[in-house]
Amino acid sequence: MEILQDPLFLSRLQFAVTAIFHILWPLTTVGVSLLLVVFESLWLKTDDVDYYRHARFWGKLFLLNFSVGVISGLPMEFEFGTNWSRFAMMAGEFFGNILGFEGAMAFMLEAGFLGIMLFGWQRVPPAIHLLASCMVALGASLSAFWILVANSWMQTPAGVHLENNRIVVDSYFEAIFNKDTPWGVLHMWFACLATSLFVVGGLSAWYMSRNRHTDFFLKSFKIALVGVVFVVPVQISLGHGSGLEVFANQPAKGAAIEAHWTTNPEGQGARWNLLAWPNKAEQKNDWAISVPNGLSLLATGDHSGQVHGLASFAKADQPPVMPLIFYSFRVMVAIGVAFLALTLWTSVAWFKGQLMPMSIGKNRWLLRAWIASIPLGYVATECGWIVREVGRQPWVIYGILRTKDAASALPVSVVSVSLAAFIIIYSIIFILFLRFAARIIKKGPDLTLLPPA
Amino acid sequence: MENEIHTLLANIWFFIIGLMLFLYVILDGFDLGVGILCLLSKNNKHRAMMMTSLESIWDANETWLVLLGGALFGAFPLVFAIALQTLYIPIMVMLFALIFRGVAFEFRHHNRYTSFWNWGFGISSLVASLAQGIAFGSLIGGLGITEDNLQGNVWGWFTPFSLLVALGVVTGYTLLGATYLMIKTEGAVQRIIIDHSYAAAILEIAILSAVVIWASRISPHFAARWTDKITGSYLDLFLVLAIVAFIMLMRALRKGFELRAFFWSVIISMAAFTAVTIGYYPFMVPASIALTDAASSSKTLIFMLSGIGFLIPVMLIYSGYQYLVFRGKVQMNGRAE
After folding, report:
1. Is residue A219 part of a domain?
2. pTM of the predicted model, to two decimals?
């Protein structure tokens, strides 16, 4: 394949592989670290030792997950220099600074208390331990904040100007709180919460469906349920808000998400494509199932609002691989809807009094649905990131730097070797992780564990 | 005036990044050194003990590298970009080794093949140390780039000088690791560790001397620093400090002073590190990139200083607290939970 002889393409592929792999782990690090704080606080407050055992049991999975997150995050930072040196040179002044903040404010905090949180139960008093757990959770959420600030700035750059082909910051406030920041940060943070809640709730459902420790896991299941009742509706509205923001500030991305080619004439609403097959070569959809005025309503709130079509952008400014963007978006939305349905279904069951230790096992399909939801948060998040990053192309910093002008000048040989090594090593780690996590899960919690005296 | 402020800020950041690199070299240095010592151990139990001694702290130690990367990226984007691109191969090798090493810590608990992970841990620690040494050696060797051509080729790091520096780094890390293990172990393990400490210390001093002599031959800039009255006397001072530290270390090893042995090996590393820094100042990449040219604008340097600079003491305090919580000899009662 000719494309594999192109170092730029290989660097992009390598970044995609490392980013797609890496994002899997922080999702649950951010969310589960908060749940661990909840369990630990409930234990200290109610004196119910089950909550202590919950903290210890989920802590084991957390540690396994955390270590893969740490080691897969390290290459991301270095790749900006190794593979994207022209981007690093141009944008380091802002972008590097933000990564530095992430390291100093978030990672150090997380790492500085992680040892105490995981191995220090016998060594520090409960209050200090709770403080350590809180600091780890805070560090994880702060790192999500800073990395999304950096990425949002690449989507809607603000507060800077160019000088000798280098970014110079005029206003840090404007650059950090650029137009995409609130949406990017919150949508990702809630994605972490939702994914983690469905993982913990789904695994709890798995135990209950096998009648293992039903009393014990009903507690974590109910906490997860309370969580999703709040998180899922908020996440869906954040998703809608992010969409409006994209149409306002990155119209080409918005049009690509919806496979919308021609700008609708005044007074006439734009159709919304439920399903379609966008064809970039011919600048139209091969086929489409669409709803009249739907897109105008979704993107502008008015049934005849104007939405810029892709064809109004030069071909060189249109995002590539449009079917990928189009369908990733739809998968993400479908999962959001499925989460909402599951939340409603379970809430009704609770309301009817069906979530009792004696009766929950009879609700087979409900438990199965929760088990099936375990991987869905991950899938939705990956799809969301594909939409966000591929949709921004051909730009790496939207409107300022094109991706093709951002890469290092590297020989094909070294990039293809490093790419192959990443693929092989990450696949092995992924398989081993699943096996080891399965082992922890099969073994189950230790219900004889007593809190430190 | 504006220029002077910029020069001052660039120098402050040069110092901060030097400090971060130094902290990384010491903290992850002993961490990696313990890994290298695993390879020398003939006993699986000892190896497990060595790894356990790092379990609660390795992540915090490695985070200094993340912080260093971010700070360099923000304060000196030009150096970050050029150095990493030119050092593509050693950096990737280091990353893969650190990846393997990181998962080995956790995966060995879940797998029957404990000795595979223990050995893998040792080998990846050695590889990561070598890669870091090569990267550092070729950085102070000038990365094979010139003033007119900032595009080094991807094999520019492969020089005899950088290989020698890499050996120096490996022995330095081994010494730090051995003296750290002296604090964390007792009895038979500790006696073996003390023997390794002697060997590592003697090798390190020999290699460091070779590096100094070689550097003043290949780098006119470094040689000029040595003959200059003021900088020359500073360099002499650190040379003397290194020798004193070496003698004190030998004494501490003989008498079994655990904390002092670690302290004096840190001083040896500190003296060597400072001498290199003085020798190459004011260049970031010797003879091609001066630190003021590579620095970000004053505004960014001030903003970073307020965000990161003031957090350094805070980070040191809570990292120190974590060490304090886990002080004392390693306990091997199953998994330390």
Report:
1. yes
2. 0.93
